[in-house]
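Q: What would this chain look like folded?
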Amino acid sequence: MEVLQSLHPLFRLPPTEDGSAETVDNATAAVARLIMAAPAAVPMTVVVPALLQALPLKADQCENPTVYKCLHQLVHSSVPELKPHVGNALSVYGQILSEPRSVQDEVLANDVLPGLRLLFQNPTYNEQASLALQSFAPEARTVIARHLQQ
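A: My prediction, written as C-alpha cells:
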C-alpha cells in the first residue's frame, strides 16, 4: 500500500525537530484510519508495532479519539498480529491512565477503559496481558488494577 510506504518515514522523525511530534501523531492517526477502514488491506505485522510505538500521542491530542478507537477495535477483533505486542498495548493503556487528563473523558469511557478490560477478558490476549502486567512497576500495576476493578 503506497500510502503506508509514504507515512513510514514520518514515524522515524527525531523528536527534537520542530513540529515532528505533531507530524508523528498525525501519521499515527492516518494509519489508524486505514486500519479501521480496510483492515484486510493493511500489513498488520508491520503496522501494529509501529502504531503502538507511537502511542500515547505526544502533541496532537485531537487525534486521540481516532487512535484509541482503532486500538480498541484491534483488541475487540482479536487481531492475531496484536498478540506478540499485548505488553506494549497494556503499557500504552497504563500510561494513559496514569495521566488521565491526556485524553478526553469520552475517549477514556468509550475506548481506553473497554480496550484495557478486553485485553484481560479476550481469550486471545488474556494470558499475555496477565504476564505483561506482572512485569510492570508496582505503581503501574496499581493504576491498571484499579481501572480493571471499576
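The two ends are 41 Å apart (CA to CA).
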